[in-house]
Specification:
Blueprint (H helix, E strand, L loop, with lengths): L8 E5 L7 E5 L11 H91 L1 H28 L2 H123 L3 H8 L6 H57 L1
Antiparallel strand pairs: 1-2
Helix pairs in contact: 1-3, 2-3
C-alpha cells in the first residue's frame, strides 16, 4: 500500500485557459502505517474512474456538437442550392414571357402600319384623282374658250359676235362663279378631309400610346410580384440563418461554461487529493501525528470531511440533473424546429400557388 509514497512522484495539472504543467511532488520523510491508506487508495481510484467518465462524457458532447454543426451546415448548403434553382427558373420564365410579348407587340405594330398604308393608298388612288381630272378638264375648256373660241368668233363677225360675246361673257361669269363655288367646295371638303385624317392619326397615336402604357404596366406587375416574393423568401432565410447563428453561439457559450466547470472541479479534486496526501504523509506528518495522538482525527475534522463529501455528492447530482434537463430541452427544441420548418415550407407552398 505504501510503495507509491517511497519516492518522488509527478502530477500533470491542466489549468483552464493556461498551459499544462507537470508538478513534482516531494516524497514523505517517513512512511507511517495508517488505517486510512486503503480508504484513500479507494477514493483515489474512484476519482480516477470519475475522471475517465467525465472525459468520456466531454468527448461524447463534443461529438454531438460536431454532428449538429455539420447538420446545420448541410441545411445551409441545401437552402442555397434551392434558392439558386428558383432564381434560375424565374429568370428563364421571365425571358420567355418577354420574348412572347415582344413578338405580339411587333405583329400588332406591323398590322397597324399596314392598315395605315392601305387606307392612304386607297385615298390617293380613288378619291383624289377624280377632282383633279375634273379641274384639269375645266381648265383646258376655259383655256380653249378664252384663247381659241373667242378670238376666232371676234375675227369672223364683229357686230353679231359682240352681242354674243357680251351674252357669252355673262354666261361665262355665271359659269365661272359656279366653277369657283365648286372649287371652293372641293377645297373645303379637302381641308375637312385633311383635318379628319390628322385627327384620326392623333387619335390612333394616343390610343397606341395608351395601349403601350397598359402593356408596360402588365409587364412590370409580374416583375414586381416576383421581386417581392424573392425579397420575402430571402428575408425568411436570413432570419433563419440569424436564428441558427444565435443558437450556435449560445451552444458554444454553454459548452464553454460547462467545460470550465468540469475543469475547475477536476482541478479542485486534484488539489484536495494533493493536499490530503501532503498533510498525512508529507514533511509535517510526524508533528501532526504526535499532536493528534498517533494519527486519530478529531470530531471537528471528521465533521468537516463529512460535510465536504456531502457537498461534493450534491454538486455531482446537480451536474447530472442539469445535463439531463439540457438533453431533454435540446430534444424538444429539435422537434419544435422541425415543426416550424414544416410549417414554413407549407406557407411557402401556399404562397407559390397563390402567386401562380
Amino acid at each position: 500500500m505504501t510503495e507509491r509514497f517511497k519516492g518522488p512522484s509527478s502530477m500533470r495539472i491542466d489549468p483552464p485557459g493556461g498551459v499544462s504543467q507537470i508538478v513534482t511532488k516531494a516524497p514523505p520523510r517517513q512512511i507511517l502505517d495508517s488505517k486510512r491508506i486503503p480508504s484513500m487508495d479507494a477514493q483515489e481510484d474512484d476519482l480516477n474512474a470519475e475522471l475517465l467518465n467525465l472525459e468520456e462524457g466531454t468527448r461524447k458532447r463534443n461529438r454531438e456538437f460536431k454532428r449538429r454543426m455539420d447538420a446545420i451546415e448541410q441545411r445551409q448548403k441545401t437552402y442555397k442550392n434551392v434558392l439558386k434553382e428558383e432564381t434560375d427558373r424565374r429568370d428563364v420564365e421571365h425571358e420567355e414571357v418577354l420574348r412572347g410579348i415582344k413578338e405580339k407587340l411587333d405583329r400588332a405594330v406591323n398590322a397597324v402600319e399596314t392598315k395605315i398604308e392601305d387606307d392612304f393608298s386607297i385615298f390617293h388612288a380613288t378619291h383624289i384623282p377624280i377632282p383633279e381630272a375634273r379641274m384639269k378638264d375645266m381648265e383646258e375648256d376655259l383655256h380653249h374658250f378664252v384663247h381659241v373660241t373667242v378670238p376666232k368668233a371676234i375675227d369672223e363677225c364683229s357686230g353679231i359676235i359682240a352681242r354674243k360675246v357680251e351674252k357669252a361673257r355673262e354666261t361665262f361669269q355665271i359659269e365661272n362663279t359656279k366653277v369657283m363655288k365648286r372649287e371652293e367646295k372641293i377645297v373645303e371638303r379637302f381641308c375637312k378631309h385633311v383635318g379628319q385624317t390628322a385627327q384620326g392619326m392623333e387619335d390612333e397615336n394616343a390610343s397606341r400610346i395608351a395601349k403601350m402604357h397598359l402593356l408596360r404596366e402588365t409587364i412590370v406587375a409580374p416583375e414586381y410580384v416576383d421581386e417581392r416574393h424573392e425579397e420575402v423568401q430571402i428575408t425568411k432565410m436570413m432570419r433563419e440563418i440569424v436564428t441558427i447563428r444565435s443558437m450556435i453561439a449560445k451552444e458554444v457559450k454553454e459548452r464553454g461554461e460547462e467545460d470550465c466547470v468540469v475543469l475547475d472541479e477536476m482541478l479542485a479534486t486534484q488539489n484536495k487529493l494533493q493536499y490530503s496526501v501532503l498533510e498525512n504523509f508529507g514533511a509535517g506528518a510526524d508533528d501532526k501525528s504526535k499532536g493528534k495522538g498517533k494519527g486519530k482525527m478529531t470530531k471537528e475534522e471528521r465533521e468537516q470531511a463529512e460535510r465536504e463529501e456531502a457537498e461534493e455528492k450534491a454538486m455531482l447530482e446537480q451536474m447530472e440533473q442539469a445535463e439531463k434537463e439540457k438533453e431533454e430541452g435540446e430534444g424538444e427544441g429539435e422537434e419544435d424546429g422541425e415543426g416550424e420548418e414544416e410549417g414554413e415550407e407549407g406557407e411557402e407552398g401556399e404562397e407559390g400557388e397563390e402567386g401562380e
